[in-house]
Amino acid sequence: MDTEKFRYGGKLVKVCSAFEYAKSELMESTLRIRTISTRQNALIRVRDIVLSFGEDHLQIQHTILEFLAGKLNWNLAGSNMS
């Protein structure tokens, strides 16, 4: 009789344990999805802005980025010598 009473006890404990952290996991997953969506929307906006640039503007941006990358590499090389 006692074994019949607790026949499904182990299964019930497993199910309850699975639901214990479900809310926080769901909130974390929802936040992750919202973050990815926000990043995708931002990238779409940036792409649209870049597509609106003229050739002269793109060349200036490219030159600026090369200049900044050179400064960054120079600074990194200098900090590695210390």
> Helical percent range?
over 70%
The count of strands amounts to: 0
Mean of pLDDT? 87
Q: Tell me what portion of residues adopts beta-strand conformation.
A: under 5%
What structural class results from the helix and strand content? mainly alpha
Largest β sheet strand count, sense and barrel closure: none
Please provide the ordered H/E string of secondary-structure elements: HHHH
Low-confidence stretches: none
Q: Which term fits the overall shape?
A: elongated
Number of helices: 4
Give the termini separation: 78 Å
List the helices and strands and how they pair.
Elements: H1 2-5, H2 9-20, H3 22-52, H4 55-81
Which key phrases capture this entry?
82 residues; mainly alpha
How does this structure look, described?
The protein has helices at about 1-5, 10-20, 20-50, 55-80. It is mainly alpha-helical and about 80 residues long. The protein has one domain (about 1-80). It is elongated, with a radius of gyration of 28 Å. The N and C termini lie far apart (about 80 Å). The model has no long low-confidence stretch (mean pLDDT about 85).
Quick rundown:
The chain has 82 residues and is mainly alpha-helical. It is built from four helices and no strands. The protein has helices at residues 2-5, 9-20, 22-52, 55-81.
